[in-house]
Amino acid sequence: xxxxxxxxxxxxxxxxxxxxxxxxxxxxxxxxxxxxxxxxxxxxxxxxxxxxxxxxxxxxxxxxxxxxxxxxxxxxxxxxxxxxxxxxxxxxxxxxxxxxxxxxxxxxxxxxxxxxxxxxxxxxxxxxxxxxxxxxxxxxxxxxxxxxxxxxxxxxxxxxxxxxxxxxxxxxxxxxxxxxxxxxxxxxxxxxxxxxxxxxxxxxxxxxxxxxxxxxxxxxxxxxxxxxxxxxxxxxxxxxxxxxxxxxxxxxxxxxxxxxxxxxxxxxxxxxxxxxxxxxxxxxxxxxxxxxxxxxxxxxxxxxxxxxxxxxxxxxxxxxxxxxxxxxxxxxxxxxxxxxxxxxxxxxxxxxxxxxxxxxxxxxxxxxxxxxxxxxxxxxxxxxxxxxxxxxxxxxxxxxxxxxxxxxxxxxxxxxxxxxxxxxxxxxxxxxxxxxxxxxxxxxxxxxxxxxxxxxxxxxxxxxxxxxxxxxxxxxxxxxxxxxxxxxxxxxxxxxxxxxxxxxxxxxxxxxxxxxxxxxxxxxxxxxxxxxx
Amino acid sequence: xxxxxxxxxxxxxxxxxxxxxxxxxxxxxxxxxxxxxxxxxxxxxxxxxxxxxxxxxxxxxxxxxxxxxxxxxxxxxxxxxxxxxxxxxxxxxxxxxxxxxxxxxxxxxxxxxxxxxxxxxxxxxxxxxxxxxxxxxxxxxxxxxxxxxxxxxxxxxxxxxxxxxxxxxxxxxxxxxxxxxxxxxxxxxxxxxxxxxxxxxxxxxxxxxxxxxxxxxxxxxxxxxxxxxxxxxxxxxxxxxxxxxxxxxxxxxxxxxxxxxxxxxxxxxxxxxxxxxxxxxxxxxxxxxxxxxxxxxxxxxxxxxxxxxxxxxxxxxxxxxxxxxxxxxxxxxxxxxxxxxxxxxxxxxxxxxxxxxxxxxxxxxxxxxxxxxxxxxxxxxxxxxxxxxxxxxxxxxxxxxxxxxxxxxxxxxxxxxxxxxxxxxxxxxxxxxxxxxxxxxxxxxxxxxxxxxxxxxxxxxxxxxxxxxxxxxxxxxxxxxxxxxxxxxxxxxxxxxxxxxxxxxxxxxxxxxxxxxx
Lengths: 533, 518
Fold this sequence. Notes:
Chain A is mainly alpha-helical. Chain A has one domain (2-529). Helices cover 74% and strands 3% of the residues of chain A. The model of chain A is unreliable at 220-229 (pLDDT under 50). Chain B is mainly alpha-helical. Chain B has a two-stranded antiparallel ribbon with strand order 1-2. In chain B, helix 7 (168-197) crosses helix 11 (252-259), helix 18 (392-405) runs antiparallel to helix 20 and helix 18 packs parallel to helix 21 (475-493). The chains are: A mainly alpha, B mainly alpha. Chain A binds chain B through residues 70-73, 137, 140-141, 144-145, 148, 151, 155-156, 163, 167, 170-171, 174-175, 178-179, 181-182, 185-186, 188-189, 233, 236, and chain B through 399, 403, 406, 408-410, 414, 418, 421-422, 425-426, 428, 430, 433-434, 437-438, 440-441, 444-445, 448-449, 452, 456, 494-496, 499-500.
């Protein structure tokens, strides 16, 4: 009973909480924050219960619940179908972890506290929905609805440029989603749609759909000599579907909305945007795009990998050029997510050059790395934005030149910032290292040149963070910072779980990898056999 | 319960008659009578729809069919008999549109609760208009169809000219002239169809064409036959299309919407524009399939241009009501696109329903909630007021309406747009589908812009606090807005309720005809 309803509870508890918080808008801020935080903790408890009861040796979805939702005469019914596998579980836990921390970090939000926390809870419900729903239309509902709370959070509580940034964010993401929708429903009119009908809307059937598309592709390979062997329609559909995810992650060159948005959003919202919302895009690539368009991505792998590597290098270089700490963290976020994309696109290369190597180990290593990077980046990027948010909140500044010499003034803050920076740049012993190592290890077999490029990006990323540490914490004390005091205990509390997890995963990565293993295993099978058992 | 459905027409006409005869100072009586008539019509439509879906026989159900006008002398030297029937019938699609009319009309009465000037005439004309609309959706005789069609148009003129606001005489005149040109064209087409098929009965015409479909579609026709049939089809289609706000004949729509009083603009966008689209679908496309076959793609271009131009024009308007007016043009373009794909007719009907509800809601918010209180619709002025703080209910409603109208899943606009996109892809018009998808982005842009500027600007506390509070939102307004939002939400979350009810309006031979193209 609990097994069936737990995921539904997880989606709707924050939404119910949002209404509750709105009802309390006349009460004191403490009560509002307390209620919102209690709901966040409740979701965290639920997700930990999921982890405790998750069977790590069963492939496929667990905690399933399936309720008929829509019935159209001739077609298969559409279901409200929720369930998690290893991938889903990890992003659910990440969501449940980041949101309460963002709530704790929102202490300085002054205006309209009830509305702020209600929107945050609404957003959390949407994120849970995206990560657990397994049927396209309802999934898309949560995917789209999530734009509204983010839009208002950035707009109303953001910096001076918040309005413009929110508008840009909304339209950019919506444009991606419109093409995602068009591409996905367009599948109905391909061989996959002919074979599966409306079954194609169930994410569990995507590899069967890929097999059908592949069949279509093989038909035309004999009649033509080109390398692009599938009918061009499928490539258009693939580009449509991937556009939605590419904007959300973002994949270079669809990233231009991101620095403005992250820089203008209030720090807790930036934490959520980078920690959870960008993961929705990575999740989409893994859950939908890769199983479905595995062969087409393989055909275009050189271009896609090129974009991902370019994204990694350019964003690292752009971060190096930033004077604004928040924009720099935003570019670093693009940099780190590009490694996820490198891993994902490299996994698709199972058909061409590397095939004879039977790249089983490479693929599962890259996949494991991607999942670990999702979790690790979620934690470190959120922590980085949290610390930069504290700097901005106290001094009202966030330029690199505005700080200096904080080491003596605030040793705990310095220690925390350096720790998180090291985790972020991939120092061994911290979570980022394992993730990036696994991705690069996998991609080295599949696409060696890409790995070289990615390594350069890792190096530049490290330079960026070291430069920040030097500018902010070392050197003579900036006179305007004389009154800067160290972190208070209330400010330290949210950091503790983040730092513990970073170190914990760095030392014992199986904490995450064990949960992800069955998913990686089945997924690798699908990629290698092309969905045909 | 099905036999009750014609009573929606009679109730409205009877209500209009009673109102005309009543004393002018019984304002409360006028309002409550109008409300009870519209609520009763909605209930009848709901019961009818429920009955229809339990019957399970998804065909046309005849309600009344009596001979009305018969001119035997005309038949003497003519192979056809000239006989007009009073022929009322419904199928699932008519029921959906009747239900839509009932809902929007009820909301319209609630949003005109504050009218004090000549209430008797206002509500009488209002009921007359609605009665005509109900009649159009039920007529299966072309002559009767045109009679009700005109009944629906004439009260519009008076409603706008007497109770309207900005530029009301100009708007009313433009609307009336456009509508009459449209109906004259449509009438010409209908008379030609009598000359061709010898009857005004839509079902008989359909039987006639199906029986001869091999003569029509299996062999090439001479140029003159093709030209004539194309001209006839275009004449009828554009005649109805004018009222549907088809580009480039749409200019009356925004002007008329802006000039009209709130309830009238709700009906105008919510229901009257649907009359045009319904006419295109039920009449023009069904009676001239041969002409249709060669016009589909050019007309689709017009629909797509309408979608995009409407959206871009809405993006640059400074008058709040014009934004909504042009968004209606854009959304009606979706309806026409759905119709023209033939397989997307269900989506078109769904979009008609969805747009009817949402346009009604948005005109209610702009015209009644905002304009009646601030006496301005200029976005530049509204920007300085900070409406979200003063009228939080209106702001919340508009955010929901905007989300629904830009096609957010969970609301009625989404299933409509998805099914129209599906149909467009299904017939292989990838380019049109992409263009339509791009228009969704424009729709989001103009809706966001309007929401931001009208409601969420200037809410920061000002240094000189000269704020005087606006009158609060009244109870009828809240009920009306909640009702429309609830309908949009129900239909958006359970689109199957409506989709399963929608029966194909187009005869099977229309599909054959549309395939001739490829």
